[in-house]
Amino acid sequence: MDFFNLEKLLKTTAINKNRNMNILLVNPLTHSLYGAEYEDVPTISRKIALKLIEFPRPIALFLLVALTPDEHNIRIVEGKPDDIDYDVDVDLVGISFTTRYAPLAYQIADRFMERGVKVVLGGWHPSALPEEAIQHADSVVVGEAEYIWPKLLEDAKNNKLKRFYIQDKPVDVMDIPSLTSIFNDIDVPIGIQATRGCPHGCEYCAITHMIYRNIFRARPVEIVVDEIEKLPQETFIFFDNSLTISPRYTKRLFKEIVDRGINKKFTCFGNINILGRDEELLFLSNEAGCVAWLVGFESVSQESLDSVKKKTNVVKNYKSAVAKIHDYNLFIVGNFVFGFDGDGLDIFQETVDMIKTCEIDVPDIMILTPLPGTPLFRRLDAENRILTYDWSKYNFENVVFQPKNMTPEELLINSRLAFKEVYSTSNIIYRVAKAFRFSMYKTIDVAIRNFYLSKKRYQKT
Questions:
Q1: How far apart (Å, rounded) are the C-alpha atoms in residues 78 and 100?
Q2: Count of C-beta atoms within a 10 Å radius of residue 254
């Protein structure tokens, strides 16, 4: 399957042919960093990238498929509003989305509702703003779906759909469905979820402030590795908020992968404080097939980190921590954010210098974005510092709030300039050349990620 052909992206996946309800799940837009939004990229490089790097779809819709009783037909489609077939024979439409895709999701929902089709909205954004979401739907799901979705389907079947379904307790890990039952019915890559929740409570994070998502839960190692073993693709990503929240659990997970002789490549999210000191974790991750850790450095200003309760990061330890990760043949995808209240105009060059000094293999630069539902959004809103409620601009590339120590224009322009410097041709070549310290596979991986990421930020402005 060519993931970059939009017509093929709209392929539907039928799970059962016994008609009871016809259910359509919609992903409002391709979320893959290397997906259909980058049609100017040569086809040959896409095909190479597909063989080397994970290209997962958001896991939420696949979980709904696994939770749906066999009596119903269920299909998944993705695309922009004009790509969707609104004349399809369907009884219920479910759309899950994050903030940046809310306008697209609402357009799709409105067009189905105009036809009299029942629409259910869920995901991060509807959970944060259910009263807004209900203006475009018959029902809104707030929180995790495991205990809600089966009840919602029963209500829809009996024409008793409620306006709101609100999660009332944490989902037990044994009730998170395995996706192995649908592996044979789909031909798009998906990721793996070993744990759920994050207790750290960073002010800007939408994950930890969604209902019950501050409660960390780990699925049984054997079940997770069963999924990995049966996963059709050879590369994948762990969708976990962080696999360093419980190093003990993660080590058991990696050991099980090694013991079973599974030969797959993966990436995962982790916090720099643990990665910088737990050498056993780094060793086992490399042995299990990890090629890279995705790390939220966020800022090179300790004041800025402290102001948003990013307790896991100590700036003075960045360089030694990165070196330690490199020692274990692992590269780093590092995220940096501009716009914290502790940031002055000097933060931009300081960040560029830190990226070079630490030799971050795949750096990304974003603009702080106060997502609805977070303490950051509530604080800035209360201070009258939110500049726009156009959710399409909440894409980490626009300035949607009034910064404290600079103008919005200074934040935007300097972020672009910093990104341009980090992704200059000479700096990309240097990072790829340094990646030869790992292996040829990882060098190519670093090269592809640098190439595509250089096309990701600030390209339409």
A1: 16
A2: 24
